[in-house]
Amino acid sequence: MINNKTFTKVLPTLPASIQKATYADTEILFDWHEVKGFKGASIDGIQVIVRGTDGADQTMRDIDLLFATSHIREEERGISVDQVPPTLGTTGAAVDTFQWKNNLVGYVPIVAGDFIDGDLVVLNIATKSGLNIPVSGDLYVAAIAKGTLDFTSTVQVSTETATNTPNVVVKTTSALTSFAPGDVLHDEDDQVIGTVKSVTDANNIVLTKNCQSVSAVNKDLYNIHPIQLILSGSI
Description:
about 5% helix, globular
């Protein structure tokens, strides 16, 4: 029997307005994010890719990953329902609601020592294998910081963005180290700027389409997906 593997990339959103401040111990990094396209009966491995701090190496701390499904079954009473996991609480604050308890199917601590050192400068990568997290129904993932994590940015708008051009001119910190093609950019006020097509040099970004919003000079720009997960499973 051939053991086929499935791999799914997950891009949870961390709002720019919350990334402006560092995340502290016990704070929600992102609330339940639906994992689209996962086909395995269980999760057996996770790769966690974390962006740096303002174009430099991130000082890594532990991250707790929580997994939940929409399918809830209580064997003793024969109850089976589909329920999207209720919120953990306010992103950027501590968990303060617990109605998701029966949706939970797995907990994976990613400790600071799991991450590679700073050789990649703006990326820290951790890998966990040998897991066995069951998946029944739609799959969701959430994350909690277990220490200070810092995604702050000082890549600032240099020339006010305009909705008739895909060009974004920035200053202060190099766009080359902070952003890459495919990044979704918002400004510090959560205004949508657009998706990066290319980074020409330290000061010039080209989007896939014209800028979606007008962002003023000196507004900081953020990639709203600074944490990526790659889940593996068997089918």
